[in-house]
Amino acid sequence: MNGMELTMPHQTMVHVQRRQMEDQKTYEMATIFRPDLEEQGFDPITNTVENIITSAGGEMIAKDIWGMRELAYPIKKNTSGYYVFYYFKAAPDAPHKIRDAVMLNENIVRHMIIVSEFMPEKLRKGGVDGQEQ
């Protein structure tokens, strides 16, 4: 073996990582949490979703907490829910991994992930928690 054969896999891996970074898109995930979780506090539960996003290879950009809202129609016998919007960058295969993990979470009543072309102004300035810095 010569030195060139040993460096090829590394060079290929660097090329693949660079390509994945170029292919990243910005996503928005809307989530509605069960209203009865208010007693326990929503911070640990919303942080769980952030961990799901980062473990799937995503990078959190911002989190917009809308709080408790009435639903237009009952979902799983709930008439209200706690709304949180997550904005993150990820490779195109990450939303499938995130969706699979979120669907297993009993605390989430409904969710939707879309490619985001818009982010509220307050979040562009404020970072992950949406607060002014």
Question: Can you give a write-up of this model?
Answer:
This protein has a domain of 78 residues: Alpha-Beta Plaits, CATH 3.30.70. It contains four helices and four strands. With 133 residues, it is of the alpha+beta class. The model has no long low-confidence stretch (mean pLDDT 82). Strands 2-3-1-4 form a four-stranded antiparallel beta sheet. The protein is globular, with a radius of gyration of 18 Å.
Classified by CATH, the class of the domain at 24-82 and 92-110 is Alpha Beta
Mean pLDDT: 82
Whole-angstrom Rg: 18 Å
Low-confidence stretches: none
How big a fraction of the residues is strand?
Answer: 35-45%
The CATH homologous superfamily of the domain at 24-82 and 92-110 is termed: Ribosomal protein S6/Translation elongation factor EF1B
Class per helix and strand makeup: alpha+beta
Helix content: 25-40%
Number of strands: 4
Number of helices: 4
CATH architecture of the domain at 24-82 and 92-110: 2-Layer Sandwich
Q: Give the overall form.
A: globular
Sheet with most strands? 4 strands, antiparallel
The CATH topology of the domain at 24-82 and 92-110, please?
Alpha-Beta Plaits
Order of helices and strands: HEHEEHEH
What order do the strands of the largest sheet run in, or round the barrel if closed? Answer: 2-3-1-4
Q: Span from first to last CA?
A: 54 Å
